[in-house]
Each structure stands twice: as structure tokens, then as C-alpha cells.
Amino acid sequence: MDNQTLIENIKRLKKEKNAIILGHYYQIDEIQQLSDYIGDSLALAEQSRKVDCDIIVFCGVHFMAETAKILNPSKKVLLPDMSAGCSLADSCPADAFAKFKANYPDHIVISYINCSAEIKALSDLICTSGNAEKLVRALPEDQKIIFAPDRNLGGYINRVTGRNMVLWNGACEVHDALVPETIDRYRQQYPEAKVIAHPECNDAVLQKADYVGSTKGMLTYVKNTDVKQFIVATETGIVYQMRNENPDKQFIIVNNDSKCSCNDCKHMKLNTLEKLYSCLNTEQPEILMDSELIEKAKAPIVKMLEMSKSLNLI
Ligand code: 13P
Ligand code: SF4
Questions:
Q1: How far apart are CA 147 and CA 138, in angstroms?
Q2: Going by CA atoms, what residue is nearest to atom 5 of ligand 2?
Q3: Which runs of E-coded beta strand occur in 141-228?
Q4: 267 Cβ inside 6 Å of ligand 2
Q5: What separation in Å is there between the alpha carbon of 247 and the centre of ligand 1?
């Protein structure tokens, strides 16, 4: 089937099956265009709790679809490619994390949403890159905290808040690979541009950024400034929305190596139009979860959504 026929069939099946497509900003352009709702992890979690439909097709990675199932277990949740994982979630196995946590009995656990349901079940509060700093600031100053699984996001929050959270040593293979020398090279080439970076980048890169924020945070930042040129240190997919919303501005994606597509998250890019069509057609692959695990993993996510609401973040 050619792309146009696939797109028509996806639209038809969506209607026939009362399905909603939720898409992350890192999806390929065609999937972003077909999504009923596009967002960052925080907005997508909130949407998946609210949507009124029979089927949620989650165009993102496994932990995101799993979060949708946890928040809305009566819906059928589909992920176009079940092997769309996340290096950051994989860097924190539940058995090893449980042993780590046992060393800090007087600490609470805040986990970044990029983790498995088993890690969520071991956590007191979930956060996303869009709310992590504000949630941590909202906790009492003497509260001892373990932060998992991203050492870069956790380290960034420690730096900006002055906290001393204990960090699990995990990282995202896409963001952590960026190096400060590359940022310097781009700055020389585009001296007028502002550098914007996702907090999953390592500290040496973040120290060079004019703005650090989640995908949604970066979109808001570029929209609300008169600056016309941006050096973007994150995954490539975000540039589609940036260009759509700001046709008069220029976005230059930071890449360590001009010959590779190193900033494409290979997991996010596993979802294709063909797989989206096939999953709507066959209603497979489906996220299936144990109800006890759903209940345990749900509490810290709901806590995050409630705190985010009271802080006016959603
Ligand atoms: P956001 O929370 O900004 O959507 O980030 C998700 C992600 O996987 C970044 O790598
Ligand atoms: Fe995971 Fe990194 Fe891909 Fe985000 S970009 S889904 S953190 S591997």
C-alpha cells in the first residue's frame, strides 16, 4: 500500500473502531499528522487518563503505552511495535533497583516516567521532564529523595534546586551521547542562535544551553521569543512541530556526527505507517498487564497528575 492509501485506511479504521491515536513529538512526521493528540510524556499521560474511546493507539514507546494502560485499564491499549523500548527505562532493572532502594530506608523514591511499571510500583512519586523540577521544589526541603532512573535529569534538578538527591546511574542513549564540543562548534557556526536542550542531556551539554526543558517546554520557549535561530539538542522529531508552529524561524538539530542520524531515537522510529495501519486492523499488539501491578504503579502516577494540577502544570 502506498502512504496515501495507508493514511486513508488508518483514518477509516480509527473511526470504525472508535479509536484515538496519541502521538509523542518524537514520532515520524506522518504519524504526528495522524495523531488526535500530540504531546510530551506529561500531556500524553493526562490525555490517556481522560480519553473517551474504545481503543487507544499509543504512538510512542513501551513505557508510555504501559502508562496509558495503568491510567485507563478498561481501554484496549495498542502499541504499533511492541519492541519500541527505551534505553533509559532499560537502564533500571527492577530487582537491582529494589536492592539499591533498600540501602536508603529513610528516602522516598521519585522516578522519571521513562521507567517500567515495576519501577513505578517501587516509587512514591512519578515525574516527567515537564514537571520534575517543580514537583521536587514542592516537597519539604529536608525530605530525603532517591531519583531514578536518569542521572542527567536528576543531576540537573540537584544543580538548580540545591538538593542532594541520590541518583540511580541510568541515561538515555540518544541525549547522553551529545557532547559539549559539538555545541561549541554549532555556536561558532550560528553565533546568533540560542541553544535549547532536553534535561536528559549530560551536564556538560546542559551547562552550555540557554534554555533547558521538556519537549513541550522547548516548544513554548521558541514560540515566545523574538529570536529567529535555535540550536536544538534533543531528538529530531521535535523539529516537525517547531517548524510548523514557527515557519519564520530556523531550527538546527545538534548532531555529533553529520553522517549519521544519531539523534533519531531508534525505538520511537520503529513505529511506521504500515505498523500503525496493521495494529488498528488486527488490534494487536496489545498492552496486557497484571491488575495488581496496575494498582501499585498507578498510585505514584496519579499523585504526579494531582500535584501537577495543583501547580497549574496541566
Ligand atoms: P518528554 O517528557 O519531554 O516528552 O521526553 C520524553 C522522552 O523520552 C525524552 O527522551
Ligand atoms: Fe528513551 Fe531516549 Fe528514546 Fe526518549 S529518546 S524514548 S529516553 S531512548
A1: 15
A2: 265
A3: 145-148, 166-167, 194-197, 211-212
A4: yes
A5: 23
Q: Do domains 88-172+296-310 and 174-253 have the same CATH topology?
A: yes
Q: Which three cell numbers stand for residue 278?
A: 496493521
CATH architecture of 3-86+268-289: 3-Layer(aba) Sandwich (3.40)
**How far is Cα of residue 216 from the mean position of the Cα atoms in its chain?**
10
DSSP β-ladder status, 125-127 and 76-78: unpaired
Nearest CA to ligand 1 atom 6: 41
Give 257's pLDDT tier (boundaries 50, 70, 90): confident
Pocket flag, ligand 1, residue 241 (CB < 6 Å): no
For 24, the enclosing helix (H) or strand (E) is strand 19-24
* Continuous segment of H or E residues that includes residue 57: strand 55-59
Confidence of residue 42 (pLDDT cuts 50, 70, 90): confident
Per CATH, which fold does 88-172+296-310 belong to?
A: Rossmann fold (3.40.50)
Q: The domain 174-253: what is its CATH number?
A: 3.40.50.10800
pLDDT one-digit tens code per residue, 259-277: 666 789 999 999 999 999 9
